[in-house]
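Design job #97: recover the sequence.
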């Protein structure tokens, strides 16, 4: 049974306490003909009783490679071989508050975020007669939108 390199991962979409989606990455440590063995490191934010334990789970290799992904009964999560497939539920949520505040759609790239921020910053900067609290909030939205796009 061949082992894999340490750079191979399976991806899933997880949700934090606030209901906000994020991308989770778990390490593959072995592949066989039809199965993929992966492990979730302790402290990954499940919040369950076994959060301090390392969890090992088995996935169907053929289902994992598809866009539908493979379901794990151990972690009760759907896993994907590519991060793009796991990001689909996150993108389906629509634009976050940061994108809405900047007047952008969820498909905006980093350049569009920077342009929108610059346009709004010129209008509400304290040196140009704007409110300092509004400008700080705008800057927070800009940083959040950049983090969301960067992954």
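Job complete. Output follows.
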């Amino acid at each position: 049974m061949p082992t894999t390199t340490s750079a191979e991962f399976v991806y899933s979409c997880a949700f934090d306490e606030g209901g906000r989606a994020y991308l989770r990455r778990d390490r593959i440590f072995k592949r066989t003909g039809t199965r993929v063995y992966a492990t979730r490191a302790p402290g990954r934010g499940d919040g369950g009783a076994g959060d301090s334990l390392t969890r090992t789970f088995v996935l169907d290799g053929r289902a994992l490679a598809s866009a539908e992904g493979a379901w794990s009964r151990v972690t009760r999560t759907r896993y994907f071989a590519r991060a793009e497939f796991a990001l689909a539920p996150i993108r389906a949520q629509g634009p976050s508050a940061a994108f809405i505040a900047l007047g952008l759609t969820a498909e905006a790239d980093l350049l569009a975020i920077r342009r929108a921020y610059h346009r709004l910053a010129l209008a509400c900067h304290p040196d140009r007669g704007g409110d300092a609290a509004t400008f700080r909030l705008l800057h927070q939205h800009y940083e959040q939108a950049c983090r969301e796009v960067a992954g």
